[in-house]
User: Which sequence fits this backbone?
């Protein structure tokens, strides 16, 4: 992709992305757009160890954001998922966005938790073990569908307010320079 000059987007939570920093920088130089999305659901290490016990810690991921940004790449921190009644308040969203900005991210986004099928069963077990008092609220919020009703707007409003205060963007504005395809992109 780097050789062809195609725009690149990569989503990860792994520091292994840094092995390809030189290739990603070349892709960015050739196409004019390379954005790396780093998932950080919380900066609270305790909560992170509950929700993502085998994943790199929030501080490790923020170090990746800094290294990518220092390497000249656009970075978007994706707070996905946002956990209702746990990380959906403005302060939690603002804290992740603020640390993302401090690490060099240009973009910040967030999205709510969805619980379709088997995911719901596994997440319910996690709630039973760590947040049993929230079970009735989750049942009421998600109903049979596994998708929360129109709560996205409220999360998006919080994201936009946090971004405004911090000088981050919640909208990606890619700039493509793919030779021969200018009219398509």
Assistant:
């Amino acid at each position: 992709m780097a050789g062809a000059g195609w725009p690149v987007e990569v989503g990860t939570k792994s520091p292994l992305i840094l092995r390809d920093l030189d290739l990603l920088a070349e892709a960015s130089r050739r196409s004019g757009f390379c954005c790396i999305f780093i998932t950080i659901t919380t900066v609270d290490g305790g909560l992170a160890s509950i929700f993502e016990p085998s994943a790199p810690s929030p501080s490790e991921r923020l170090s990746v954001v800094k290294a990518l940004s220092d390497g000249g790449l656009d970075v978007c921190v994706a707070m996905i998922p946002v956990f209702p009644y746990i990380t959906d308040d403005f302060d939690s969203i603002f804290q992740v966005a603020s640390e993302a900005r401090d690490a060099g991210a240009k973009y910040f986004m967030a999205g709510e938790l969805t619980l379709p099928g088997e995911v719901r069963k596994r997440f319910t077990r996690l709630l039973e073990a760590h947040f049993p008092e929230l079970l009735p609220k989750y049942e009421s919020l998600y109903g049979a569908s596994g998708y929360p009703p129109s709560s996205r707007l409220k999360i998006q409003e919080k994201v936009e307010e946090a971004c405004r205060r911090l000088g981050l963007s919640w909208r990606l504005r890619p700039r493509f320079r793919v030779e021969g395809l200018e009219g398509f992109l």
Observations:
- The chain is about 45% helix and 15% strand.
- The mean pLDDT is 89.
- The radius of gyration is 18 Å.
